[in-house]
Amino acid sequence: MVQSETKTVDERVALRRREILHAASTLFRRRGLQRTGMRDIARALGVAVGQLYYYFENKEALLAYCQEVCLERLLTESAMIRREKAPASVRLSRLIEAHLRCLNEEIPGSLAHLEVESLNEPTKQRILRLRKKYEEALIGLLKEGQADGTLVASDPVLTVRLLLGALNWSVKWFNRDGSTTLDSLVQTAQAYLVPLTPRPPARRVTTSESSS
Amino acid sequence: MVQSETKTVDERVALRRREILHAASTLFRRRGLQRTGMRDIARALGVAVGQLYYYFENKEALLAYCQEVCLERLLTESAMIRREKAPASVRLSRLIEAHLRCLNEEIPGSLAHLEVESLNEPTKQRILRLRKKYEEALIGLLKEGQADGTLVASDPVLTVRLLLGALNWSVKWFNRDGSTTLDSLVQTAQAYLVPLTPRPPARRVTTSESSS
DNA sequence: TTAGTTTCTGAACCATGGTTCAGAGCGAAA
DNA sequence: TTTCGCTCTGAACCATGGTTCAGAAACTAA
Questions:
Q1: Looking at residue B201, what is its pLDDT?
Q2: Rounded CA gap, B83 and B174, in Å?
């Protein structure tokens, strides 16, 4: 709306796209995909419905962009975190935090992968590919944890699905204006969902222990 | 369809209702709530659309019944399990299994609580009350676990939400004709999601322990 | 000012899908 | 056989909501 200055056409378009995405994402998150109409999104932006179709082909494209943006961000962060030089357990902790923040902080991506089923085949496949890539990053991290002895996971694949479920489900109940803070959620999730080995690796050279 | 014999009218109606619920639940689960129309349900049963409205007021009622049946079952089972005389940790294990089976076995309830947002206020409140009751049973169990020393959970309320997320999310990906069996899912979930105390309570009277 | 391009408008179009309803089978009692 | 409920039918009704489009507004360049 307020982007005078000297900007190329493409830049202005890209900017407006983001603004629309932002509004759409917020509503999708708040009222659910099916229950937010194009007219709702337009009203939230204070414009006419037709304008949305000037920037996006259709509603599905809007949803697809939302999911892509969110997944790209998750992939970027996970790649960075995996590269860090730290025990797998603490990297998993970081990843859990990143994931929860990506889904619940501010206004963003919101419905991570949810709702893939209402996309047409080509788009759906693209999203699923990204999703799979992310899942595999997590599985890899779990396996590294087994290797460095900080994590236990009998079945990394299923464990990751359970982990993602616990995290993704938060979009269903976590309410920023609710009583629980995002920080406390992150803490609890880290404590609960990082499958530390029962007895953390000794920090001293000695193996003696006193059982109070 | 095939219930001749001597049955009172109410009995026949109740039976047919179950049949319809069964078909509806299956489709809701398979294609999602929004993407299954009344006509789809009718077709699956081999009858005309109108018949559905002879047994149920509307689509919403159909959904509400699905959720109620599922939640009632969960509540019944959780009540039984909580009453058992066993460490909280093993009762939690049982509950996890019961929950996963209820959601994914055979054809049943399927979308546990999901989709509450597409119910009108009175119905929604009724479902939410049941859901809350179930959540509180789980929270209670976690607290008992802290008391008897078998479980750890810094924040029982949030932990339960994460746990339920992990379990509920399974309806999004678990596919009975897929490669993973329900049994292996149950096992992995129990191993991952029961927050055992790092060092299980001694089973002997003595407290001496040998490391290595 | 004029011409041309970009951006926006909103009424209208149209498919989808929940819902209704007048009437038809059908079994049981009279 | 007739009557009377109980079941069922499916075409039609109608609201919702995604989408289109002819034109207006805004803005730039000549």
A1: 47
A2: 30
* Between B173 and B89, the higher pLDDT residue: B89
Q: Which residues on A lie below 8 Å from B169 (Cβ)?
A: 161-162, 164-166, 168-169
**Which residues share a beta bridge with A151?**
A196
Q: Which pairs with CB-CB distance under 8 Å and at least 24 residues apart come from B51-58?
A: B52/B20, B55/B13, B55/B16, B55/B17, B55/B20, B56/B17, B56/B20
Print the SS3 string covering chain A: CCCCCCCCHHHHHHHHHHHHHHHHHHHHHHHCCCCCCHHHHHHHHCCCHHHHHHHCCCHHHHHHHHHHHHHHHHHHHHHHHHHCCCCHHHHHHHHHHHHHHHHHCCCCCCCCCCCHHHCCHHHHHHHHHHHHHHHHHHHHHHHHHHHHCCECCCCHHHHHHHHHHHHHCHHHHCCCCCCCCHHHHHHHHHHHHCCECCCCCCCCCCCCCCCC
Q: Is the entire prediction scored with pTM above 0.85? A: yes
Indicate if the alpha-carbon torsion angle B65, B70, B74, B77 is positive or negative.
Answer: positive
| Chain A hits for B166, Cβ within 8 Å | 162-163, 165-166, 169
Residue A53, both tokens: 């179709």
Summarised one tens digit per residue, pLDDT across range A145-183 is 999 999 999 999 999 999 999 999 998 889 876 889 999
- Which pLDDT band, with edges at 50, 70 and 90, does A30 fall under? confident
Distance in angstroms: CA B7, C1' D5: 16
Q: A52 CA to D29 C1', in Å? A: 28
Q: How long is chain A?
A: 212
Q: Does B165 touch chain A (CB under 8 A)?
A: yes
Q: Report the pLDDT value the prediction gives residue A36, as an integer from 0 to 100.
A: 94
Q: Which helix (H) or strand (E) covers residue B38, if one does? A: helix B38-45
Strand C lies under 7 A from the Cβ of residue A178 = no
Which nucleotide is nearest to A51 if distance is taken from CA to C1'? C8
Q: pLDDT band for position B209 (50/70/90)? A: very low
